[in-house]
Amino acid sequence: MATPIRIKRSAVAGKKPTDGQLQLGELAVNFYDGKIFLKQDTGGVGVGTRIVEVGAGTTTFAGKTLFVTQNGNDDNTGLDVNNSKATIKAAVALAVPSDTVKVYPELILKIILLILQIMFR
Asked: Which strands form 59-61's sheet, in the order they lie side by side?
């Protein structure tokens, strides 16, 4: 007899399942973000599992992206460009393993200019 596929659901923005929340054969759907996750057995017989996000023709590691822009605010969630953080420090404070901190180019240029000013004082 086939094993039924169980689907776990969430409607919370940015929420992704952890390794302990999914069993092999289960799916998780975040209806708010429109994303699907599954538990992948990377080493055989349950050794070395990870949660992966399944997308349109691609699969990526689960983890949220935190945004940092010049016009951001550290009180924002950082979960999208319109709610970006102002500092890398604030974004990194929220990050956990498998998350990505995306720093927009105008802020990187500003950081490089500050470093050059300090170096050539």
From this structure: 6-10, 26-30, 35-41, 49-54, 59-61
What is the rounded CA–CA span in Å between residue 66 and residue 29?
20
On whether the CB atoms of residues 25 and 37 are closer than 8 A, the answer is: no
80: left (phi over 0), alpha (psi -120 to 50) or beta: beta
**Positions of the chain with pLDDT under 50:** 56
Strands 26-30 and 35-41: antiparallel
Q: 45: which residues sit within 8 A by CB, 6+ positions away?
A: none
Separation of alpha carbons 39 and 106, rounded Å? 37
Q: Spell out a b/e string for 64-101, using b for 16 or more CB atoms within 10 Å of the CB, else e.
A: bebbbbeebeeebebbeeebbbbebebbeeebeeebeb
